[in-house]
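sorry for the late reply, my laptop died twice this morning and i had to redo everyting from scratch. anyway the thing you sent over, i finally got around to it. pasting the sequence first so we're on the same page, its 270 residues, then the predicted structure underneath. double check i copied it right bc i was rushing
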Amino acid sequence: MWTLIEPLHAVTYFTPQARAAFEAAGLRGFWRGYFAGRAAPLGAVGAGPVEATFFGFAPAMVRRALPDVWNRATPAAALIARLDGARASLSEALPGADVSEAAALLRRAAGAAQFPGRPLAAANADLPWPEDPLGTLWHAATVLREHRGDGHVAALLVAGLDGAESLVWRSSLDSAREVLQPARGWTDEQWDAAAARLAARGWLASGAATDVSRAALDQVERQTDALAAGPWTALGPADTATLEKLLTPLSEAALRLLPHPNPIGLPRRP
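ok and here's the structure:
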């Protein structure tokens, strides 16, 4: 289900409509909008909580944005901008589409999520629900996306990885250094040091993933999926199957708005 939900959420980062909404709120530049929009549910936090919850970003990159973004736009303004931008993006992707049934089912799933140890998901779940189906669809996707993301961070920590190591590791498996490193702000020295640590653990050999590394990927993904399963168990197999059918064309349409390659691992546009 992740691959269906993520494109609906991710329009808030990558589309011209989203960037225009953030710029209108005083957040010029992609990264100001990204950090302010994603962190705004937490309030006017400093860099520390964002380094912890966003996980894969280099601290220096986070600290270039925070807390400065709150001098440019309040969290309340950033929340309005991100929802306005997401609505405008999805309206373009889904012209005339009736998303009310999908939105209602996705909201039920999000409402069934549990949030212990999941700060980003909990902060988003605390926000008021939009009153329109398109806004509801995006907000529910966002709660569920951050719910899975918080669990994924927990799985990476259990695997003994820090933020830099997690990216070096993924670049050896299903992404590329030239995509991940600049998007997360690690220096060459930090990246190479993380690679050396992974090699010492037997996860890399001459820069390539080892069998040990691939087994770890399977374990991390299984644990992430297990931690994300609660909302779908509560929704039930029949309604989950219905939702999957409803979301597939909506997600494919949203995916066409997103760049490829991208640092969040979404596939090429269909």
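The chain has a mean pLDDT of 95.
thats about all i looked at so far, will dig more tmrw
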